[in-house]
Design a protein that fits this description.
The structure is a single chain. This protein is an all-alpha fold. It has one domain. The chain is built from 6 helices and no strands. The longest helix is centred in the N-terminal third of the chain and has 66 residues. The relative contact order is 0.12.
């Protein structure tokens, strides 16, 4: 009699336990799938928000690099009444101003891209200072301009061009 009662209890409990375990596993899997789906939706939404901002940062940095290219700098800052020292100072101020204006873009680009940007800036400044030191103190702004352009022509690639190529490669990987 006790044996039969135990048997009946087992016949009822074992299937109930199996059903309960199956339900638990199905509910757990459904909840995990739902979490994964929500996480994916959030990532997709973030991507939709961040990608345009990142692209805009790359656009601004591209413009920055174009504006600090030696030829562009000379075209914008050179005035015939300047002497070489004044032109040198104006070129350096223009680079620093452009850099300061775009400083916040670093949060939207990769650390490597920002390092390349900083390197382009530093190399452009170094080039201007190096060429300015080589010409006589009485030189005109035209002399400095000519020497800078000649130096750029002798280079394999201007510092801004190297950085621009890096940004283009990074953007193509991003898209």
């Amino acid at each position: 009699m006790i044996m039969e009662t135990v048997k009946e209890i087992l016949f009822v409990t074992i299937p109930a336990l199996i059903v309960m375990l199956t339900a638990y596993l199905l509910i757990r899997k459904t909840i995990e799938n739902d979490r994964e789906k929500r996480r994916h939706e959030i990532m997709l939404q973030n991507s939709r928000t961040i990608t345009p901002i990142r692209l805009q940062a790359y656009e601004r940095l591209t413009l920055f690099l174009e504006r600090i290219s030696i030829e562009s700098l000379i075209m914008r800052t050179h005035k015939t009444e300047m002497d070489a020292k004044k032109l040198q100072a104006a070129l350096l101020v223009a680079i620093r101003s452009e850099y300061d204006h775009n400083l916040a873009q670093q949060i939207y680009v990769s650390p490597q891209a920002w390092e390349v940007i900083k390197s382009a800036r530093a190399n452009s400044i170094k080039l201007i200072n190096t060429i300015a030191e080589k010409i006589p103190p009485t030189a005109s702004s035209s002399d400095l301009s000519r020497n800078l352009l000649e130096a750029v022509m002798e280079m394999e690639q201007e510092p801004a061009k190297v950085a621009l190529d890096f940004l283009k490669k990074e953007i193509s990987r991003m898209l």
